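Subject: design request, 67 residues
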């Protein structure tokens, strides 16, 4: 037996309410306890810019290194 349009709307509203009542607070609690991206300032690092793997210094960087 097919569902009516009203039943479909009620189902969508119930699922949205369940999501915002359960999933969203759970996610906020997890973020309050720990940082999922592990963002923290490291004072010992010289730079936060990492070169891509296998990258070679450019011509200007080589000239500066030579003196």
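Subject: RE: design request

Done. Sequence follows.
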């Amino acid at each position: 037996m097919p569902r009516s349009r009203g039943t479909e709307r009620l189902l969508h509203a119930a699922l949205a309410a369940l999501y915002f009542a359960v999933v969203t607070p759970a996610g906020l609690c997890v973020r309050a306890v720990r940082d999922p991206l592990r963002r923290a300032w490291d004072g010992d690092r010289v730079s936060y810019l990492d070169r891509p793997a296998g990258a070679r210094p450019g011509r200007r960087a080589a000239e500066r290194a030579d003196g």
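The two ends are 82 Å apart (CA to CA).
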